[in-house]
Design brief:
The chain has about 270 residues and is an alpha/beta fold. It has two domains: about 170 residues, 3-Layer(aba) Sandwich (Rossmann fold); about 100 residues, Hypothetical Protein, Haloacid Dehalogenase-like Hydrolase, Chain: A, domain 2 (2-Layer Sandwich), CATH 3.30.1240.10. The protein contains nine helices and 13 strands. It is globular, with a radius of gyration of 18 Å.
């Protein structure tokens, strides 16, 4: 079975790397014959520092589905068109917005020097902050500040792009239209019902909708509608996640049908 894990707020917390005990659980899951996939809003560049090096050849979905890395190499990249970038840039200029724009590897940052996003931005100094005009392509945009964030959001929503509003962080997350974690799983030829998903935020909704089973870590109002169950954020959250992984590792996949009714009953009674 495929197991797909979001990172921040799901299996790593407060910007810290995934703990060794969680890594050991994921490693055992892989050794038991399952496939572990990481899927994050972070670009691949910013996923690597929070995932131990021994996992860097695992399949990774970055930029909410804009990037896919397999065996340590970016195999798929989906970027905005030049017209979309021009339209977005005009809106950002109109409202004096600051932003983080990610290419496949390098980035452009215009935000405040003390913005919280900097805690997670290229902490290992793997990339460069370059001029926007120097990018060959842009795969993801975060709007960080603006004269009126609601007006920016309304204007961006009129464009042919995918938008998530992260309320807790007060940032606007923009990806190319039709790009999300589920579309990336499709690119990997993983079919609906053939994976188990762990997540915590709105950008996990597409992934939860198409999972055979889904576990929400913490609580998110929108995501909760699509979660099979949830694990509360507590001092024991990592132990609870590991316990759930151990239970789920007993689930077997049956051909193209994914998880069958016997397995579902096992989960619900487990």
């Amino acid at each position: 079975m495929n197991f797909v894990f979001d990172l921040d707020g799901t299996i790593c917390f407060k910007g810290q790397p995934i703990s060794e005990k969680l890594l050991n659980s994921l490693e055992k899951l892989q050794m038991d014959g399952h496939d572990v996939i990481f899927a994050s809003a972070r670009p691949i560049r910013d996923m690597l520092p929070v995932i131990d090096a021994r996992f860097h050849e695992y399949t990774m979905i970055g930029g909410n589905g804009s990037l896919i890395s397999v065996n340590g190499t970016i195999r798929y990249s989906h970027s905005f068109t030049d017209t979309q970038i021009d339209s977005i840039h005009k809106i950002l200029d109109e409202y004096n917005a600051t932003y983080l724009m990610d290419g496949e590897w390098n980035y452009t940052y215009t935000g405040p020097v003390d913005h919280a996003i900097l805690d997670n931005l290229d902490p290992s100094n793997l990339a460069k902050n370059i001029k926007l005009s120097d990018h060959q392509s842009i795969i993801k945009i975060l709007v960080l500040t603006a004269d009126d964030m609601n007006q920016v959001l309304d204007a961006i929503l009129k464009l042919d792009v995918t938008v998530h509003k992260h309320g807790n962080e007060n940032v606007i997350d923009i990806s190319p239209q039709g790009i999300n974690k589920w579309s990336a799983l499709n690119k990997l030829e993983i079919e609906k019902g053939n994976y188990i998903a762990f997540g915590n935020d709105a950008n996990d909704i597409s992934m939860f909708k198409n999972a055979a089973y889904s576990i929400m870590v913490g609580h998110h109002k929108e995501l909760s509608q699509y979660a099979s169950e949830s694990i509360p954020l507590s001092e024991d959250v990592e132990d609870d996640i590991i316990e759930k992984i151990n239970v789920l590792s007993e689930i077997k996949q049956h051909g193209d049908a994914g998880i069958d009714s016997f397995n579902i009953a096992f989960l619900n009674n487990g």
